[in-house]
Amino acid sequence: MENTGNQPKRFCRKCLLQDMDEGQYFDDMRKYIENLDEELKVSSQLYDRRLGFCRECDNLISGMCRICGCFVEMRAVMKKNNCPGIPKKW
C-alpha cells in the first residue's frame, strides 16, 4: 500500500506470522517503527531506556511480553503506551 495523504505506509506483506519469513517480518517491523510519525514516538534515549527495562524483565520471551502479548519494541516506541506490568516499569 502506498502512502496516500495522512495514511502511513504499510510494510506487512502477508496476514499471518506463520506464513511469513521470520527475518522479513522483523525487518518489516523495524521499518514500521522507523516510519512512524515522530510526534507519536518517544525519544531514542527514552526508547532505549524502556527496552532496557524490558530486557531485564522476567516476562520478556523472544521479544514478546508475556503479560500483554505485544512485541515490546512496538509497545515501547509509542508515547501513549506504558509497561503492562504491575508495578509498571515505565
Automatic annotation (TrEMBL):
Pfam families: DUF6171. This is Uncharacterized protein. It comes from Blautia pseudococcoides.
